[in-house]
Design goal:
This protein has 291 residues and is mainly β. It has two domains: 137 residues, Cathepsin D, subunit A, domain 1 (Beta Barrel), CATH 2.40.70; 130 residues, Cathepsin D, subunit A, domain 1. 11% of the residues lie in helices and 47% in strands. Strands 2, 3, 4, 5, 6, 7, 8, 9, 10 and 11 form a ten-stranded mixed beta sheet that branches. It has a six-stranded antiparallel beta sheet with strand order 1-13-12-23-24-14, with helices on one face. Keywords: Signal. This is Aspartyl protease.
Length: 291
């Protein structure tokens, strides 16, 4: 009797826990794709409209200094954050807090941003921090980002082609990123999923070249300075790889060009378009649903 009561209590708590993270109604946010596959959305910070890259690999929200200077009541906090680009450069930034971030009909208060004085074609990056408790879908067929309601997510689950595990990295709710596990030829790797990388981008730590039978002296390579810190840089190697897939081989790339980087802080990091055309990131349930 007691075990049955505990089971019912657990199931009830789980249902309430997950339901409270989904919006009452699904919210559709149109986006444009750059020629390289970057997702560009419109958003406003404290009522100031801007154009941003939606970047699942950014970790934290970023405003350019030029855009931040236009915003009233963007509060500089006492906090700072030191993050690292995928290629290893440490970047320290003060943290600023907005009154409200609005993306179409989705709004969130007290969102934190880094501000950086950088030459960037848009006004900044929107990371996963506003969506860290949500389920959202990137629909490349219709060019829209969908923040799912409980009902719309249920319908997606009824029509999925396959599911993949979703790994979540959350540091103080300031830096949030996601990843999954892939099979790269004979290697099983944990990789970051980075919509900000664009289409058909596959980057891996150069330590795996030998295991993949790639001779670093026999492939194209070059040294590339950091765009943030030109005094730093990394050696890049470019080689063909025979196969990449998720663990159950539902999504697969055959015979593609990959980049191997000295000093990459991840086992791998890549764009998301190889997974499918309609990809749902269900963060509360730690899963990827592909329609």
């Amino acid at each position: 009797m007691k075990k049955g009561f505990l089971l019912v209590t657990f199931l009830l708590f789980s249902t309430v826990f997950y339901a409270q993270h989904y919006t009452k109604e699904k919210i559709e946010i149109p986006f444009k794709l750059s020629p390289n596959g970057h997702i560009m959305i419109k958003a406003s910070v404290n009522g100031v409209p801007g154009n941003f890259v939606f970047d699942t690999g950014a970790g934290m929200n970023l405003l350019t200094k030029d855009f931040a200077d236009k915003i009233d009541s963007l509060e500089k906090t006492t906090h700072f954050y030191t993050g690292h680009r995928a290629t290893g450069e440490a970047i320290t930034s003060d943290l600023y807090q907005s009154e409200v971030l609005k993306i179409a009909n989705f709004s969130i208060e007290d969102e934190q941003f880094a501000v950086y004085d950088i030459d960037f074609p848009l006004d900044g990056l929107i990371s996963l921090t506003p969506l860290q408790h949500k389920a959202f879908t990137v629909n490349f067929e219709e060019n829209k980002l969908v923040i799912e309601s409980e009902e719309s997510l249920r319908r997606r689950k009824e029509n999925i082609k396959f599911e993949m595990p979703l790994e979540i990295n959350n540091d103080r709710n300031v830096k949030v990123s996601v990843g999954t596990i892939v099979q790269l030829d004979s290697l099983e790797l944990h990789v970051g999923l980075d919509s900000g990388a664009g289409f058909d981008v596959y980057r891996f730590n150069s330590r795996y070249m030998e295991a993949l039978g790639i001779d670093s002296t026999q492939v194209e390579s070059k040294y590339i300075p950091s765009s943030f810190k030109p005094e730093q840089g990394n050696q890049y190697y470019f080689a063909e790889v025979s196969r990449l897939s998720d663990l159950k081989v539902n999504a697969e790339q055959i015979g593609f060009r990959a980049t191997f980087i000295d000093g990459l802080i991840y086992e791998g990091i890549m764009g998301i378009n190889w997974i499918g055309e309609i990809i749902t990131f269900d963060i509360p349930a730690k899963r990827i649903l592909v329609n």
